[in-house]
Amino acid sequence: xxxxxLLITLLTLPVSFxxxxxxxxxxxxxxxxxxxxxxxxxxxDGLIKKQIQVNEETSRSARRQDKGFRLLVISTTLRxxxxxxxxxxxxYFPELKAYLFxxxxxxxxxxxxxxxxKEAELYQRRLELLFPKGVFIIxxxxxxxxxxxxxxxxxxxx
Length: 158
Known about the structure:
Blueprint: H1 2-24, H2 43-62, E1 65-76, H3 79-92, E2 98-103, E3 106-114, H4 117-128, E4 136-145, E5 154-155
Antiparallel strand pairs: 1-3, 1-4, 2-3, 4-5
C-alpha cells in the first residue's frame, strides 16, 4: 500500500510542476536583445591604474637580474670561516658585493656581479692572492642596477 501511494505521488509531481511552469511563462515578456547596456563602476578606472602600476613594478624588479658570472671564493662546512672570507672580500674589495649562501652542509661565499667573463678573470687573479686554495668563476644570476633614462646599464658591485 505504501509503495502504491509513493508511486502515485511521484507520477503526479512532474505533472503539477509543468502546470506551474506553464503558468509562470505567461508573465515572461520579450525584450530587445540587439543592444547591450554596460554600467561601469567609477572605481574600476582606479583599479586599472593600480594594476598597471603593480605590473610595472614587478616587471622592473624582474629586469634587475640577468645571467652573468660570480667568483666562488670559498666553499666550507665552517660558518665562521665563510664569514671571515666574506669580511675579507669586503675589506679588500669594497666595490664587490659578497654573498654568503648556505647549501647544507656547505657555506659558500660568492663575490661580484660580472656580465663579462674577462672582468671576472681580472678579479679572480687579484682574489687568488688572498685565497690561495683557489677562486673559481661560476655562471650565476647576477644583480643589475636599473638604468635611469639617459644612463647606461650599470652592474651592481656594492
